[in-house]
């Protein structure tokens, strides 16, 4: 029985083995077929991704950096630049990263075919058009990062299908409409950035459903309300809604989110108070930005418990009460901004005792509590503030006592403003130790004693204001060491003696150094100064405002003042000056206010220039004046008329004069006869001083430009056309400017440009290579100038590109800033560092060219004006009433009233150009009607609405902006805004209607370099933190 049983078992096992073998074979075959199918499918899908990428490339016509060069058949698409493929699903695209490549074009709908993609990063390019709806097909998408582009329209509504999204960054585009409420369905969303667009309406209440959200950035839109529903977003850490139109109160629940580290609601119309326990409920708070709202109440004492705080800015509100005394617990505090509130007890106590606590803040850089109602003695503890402090601003309060001697310990300080208080005592000598100090404001106090000579150690000082005090003694000669001083105000003190001659050495460095820096404003009014007006004032060639009224100066008005042709305001009234009024004052083209009253001047009052308008000058209180315009009602001047009989000598003189006239007439006709020859000779002699290659002939230029063909034409100007060409002998691309001599003024323009260019050597001026003065094949005169060819065209083409798909250009912020510096440097050189000085007279975007490195070159000197080598003498200029020099929108307004050409006219043009560069608005834009101009448009936006008027397309930067906004990103944005406010302010000042209010180009260059350095330093520090 056992054997059969065993046999049966064996038989069953054998059958099982057979079935198992068959099953394995079938499975293997199935696997083989399945594998083959998989290969086919994968191959198909790979082809689909490659086709999609090529379709994306086809919609990007401009690739200046060659980022898409590798996108071709010679490489597998997974090896293309910016492409990452999956490991789990080989050769399927998961990442498209083309950030900061300056790509221009639209985003193809084929993006929706990259079905495995998880990350799309196109930061800092110039994509335009709408975001394609096909984005909604990307179900695996996690990161959609498209900031700093020009996308427009609304956000695709089907983006809600991308349910796996973690980050969306659409910052700094041209998107509009209402913010899409459907975002609320993206439950995994961590960061949402929609700042710097044109969204309007309310923040959707449905955002309260985004319970995973940690970062929300809605800065600089037109939003109107903060919904209470945001209280449900418990993980929110970064909340940025500044620069909108928000009204009402900040939801109290936001102050209870312990996760918040960045809270920015500045520049809105929000009301209400700060909760008293905020320091306890927001323990992680690092930046607290509430400036420029309508907030009120007291500053919570509990803020000192938020020990991670670095920046507190609550300026421009209506806060009252005292400043918490224990803010010194905030060891990381860098910035405390309380400016323009009603802070102070107004009860005669010590409102400044909080400063002692701040000495524990070892990182403090900015302390600003200006324009409040703080009252109390000047605390000696300011001497113990951190040596990191750079700005100490406490003007316009009710602070009394003396300035501590220990203020000299603040070795890195750059700006001190104690003006408008009740300070007494003397100015400490120790201030002279602050060798980084740039601005010192001590005016409108009760300071006494002498001006310390140690101030002469402050070689970086640009502004010194000590006016309206009780200072006595003489002006220290050591101030002559402050060679960067641009504004010196010593008015309304009790200063005595003569003005030291050394003071006026601050007007300039030596010409050999080539770095002219000038005193622009000098006021020593209402003191007890005596002696003569210093002859050495003639060194201050760029002085625009001089006030010496209310002193005891005597003697004549010095002849040396004739060099100060840039003066706009001159007040030397109420002195003991005598002698006649100098005739040269008639020739000061910009003089808009002249006060010579209450002196002992005598003789005839001039009738021209400023003396032609009685509202611009005053001579009352001078008893012995006569003549002048009728409005003065002065007695006529009595001239000694000696009647002489016609004598024998006269009878001899008359024939001689007649013969001389005939001889001159003969010379005149001879000159007419030789006019053509002389013109050619003049042109040739003008060209001999132009450093060049061998002079070119008409035939060479004809060949170089392919017969001056239309294909080579790159521009047409007032007096001729510009052709691109290649000079065979030097094998160099050139621009050939051919003058249209049939146009009136063209020959003069040619000579003017030659005369100007032969003197000029600067990296930011267009270099002339050679010139041609010849005849063409028809025997007609031919004139041409040959310049370096600028491959990037003109600034006009970049600011206002043709909208035709293949010529869409954009300049980033830093590029525009660099170009602004280049142009300013060129004008500064023309005005102050070349001999003779040159006024360009026609600065505009089309006359600024860009080389292959995007360095700006100022061009077109066809209507430029040259001045004497020793001074800026407007007597050599032509009245603008003959021909208004410049282009509509850029020409200075005074030119239209007959005022002569001046450097200030160039400054005006530069100011308009600067505003145009950063707003992308032409001064002739259709919007500027009914009294509105680009200047007033920009001025009205200062300071709080500047980000509303600047060109959003320029804000391109090189860093990788992530959607989850960090403190670094916030700092960069604040830094950018600060820099733009400074630039727009500078543009407004330069384009002021009154020439006296404009800056000089030397000052402009200095400020621009300062803006750039500050901008870069802040970014560097931000990235390192």
TrEMBL record:
Residues that span the membrane, as ranges:
652-673
Mind telling me which SMART domains this protein's record contains? Answer: LRR_SD22, LRR_TYP, S_TKc
Instruction: Give a yes or no for keyword Repeat in this entry.
Output: yes
Binding positions (ATP): 737
What InterPro entries does the database record attribute to this sequence? Kinase-like_dom_sf, Leu-rich_rpt, Leu-rich_rpt_typical-subtyp, LRR_dom_sf, LRR_N_plant-typ, LRR_R13L4/SHOC2-like, Plant_LRR-RLKs, Prot_kinase_dom
Query: What are the residue boundaries of the Protein kinase domain, all occurrences included?
Result: 708-1012
At the top of the EC hierarchy, this enzyme's class is: transferase
Q: Does the keyword Flavoprotein apply?
A: no
Q: Where in the cell is it found?
A: Cell membrane
MF terms from GO for this chain are: ATP binding; protein serine/threonine kinase activity; receptor serine/threonine kinase binding
- How does it sit in the bilayer? Single-pass type I membrane protein
This entry carries the following GO cellular component terms, namely:
plasma membrane
Stated family: Belongs to the protein kinase superfamily. Ser/Thr protein kinase family.
What PANTHER family does UniProt report for this protein, alphabetically?
LRR RECEPTOR-LIKE SERINE/THREONINE-PROTEIN KINASE-RELATED, OS06G0585982 PROTEIN
Instruction: Please give the name of this protein.
Output: non-specific serine/threonine protein kinase
Origin species: Aquilegia coerulea (Rocky mountain columbine)
